[in-house]
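Onboarding guide, step 5: your first structure request.
Type a short instruction followed by the sequence, for example:

Predict the 3D structure of this protein.
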Amino acid sequence: MKILNKMATISIEEAYKRFDNDERFLFEKIKDPEMMVHYVLSFRGVNSVYFLYNFFIEKEFQKSKNYLYKIGMVNAYYHEVLKMGIFGMINIFTFPILSDSSKLINRYLTYHKTGTYDHYDWFTTHFAKGIQSILNDDMNTLETHIDGLRRRSKRGDAKLFTGMITAFEGFYNKDKEQIKTGIYEVLKKTKRQYPNSLDYQYIHYEATAIAKLAWRKGMEIEIDSPLVPKELLPVRELEHYEGYEFFKELEK
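The system replies with structure tokens like these:
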């Protein structure tokens, strides 16, 4: 199971300065279309640092959602235009949820076919498709993916994320306390899940996305953890989301 990670050896401020240079470097590289597949995913790291800086340092809680949107769109581009996998990383589907972009969320609801590097029975796939089931109020498929998560969590890194099973069972049972229990189970293992991550020192994307899903479903839960920032939980869509020029290829 792959996870989106970043070394936590520098501060947010230092990372922000460094990644601003990295973004310019990436724009130069992707001028050659053949290099897009090699460099496009690096825009995720750039925008995650921009998000951290704007949310936690500048306290621009609404503005920062645009960077989560960009991460979600980069993954969409990688999948739709470059025909690569979408289910292979555990937190991929969290970024549309946290961005509040209804257009982006609806786009992710269409992802049913796995790509070259995906497998339908991966833990990460069941997590992503479980989110789809919750958004669609489809309890039959949610039950299927809960069973898949349980089956695939018996070994490897997936054992560190079994709290997701409890949380999804909470959605199935419409039990907000069970959802909260699952989120706390996930949070307890953060350091083992992401031992060298700058992002996960400040926010647990998966736990926060699960909490935000509960808000979307009318269960306004509160999580007593700085890794689930309360400012991000209410559903407040931006009037306009800014993207990269190459995102226009997704509209063709």
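Each response can be followed by summary notes, for example: The radius of gyration is 17 Å.
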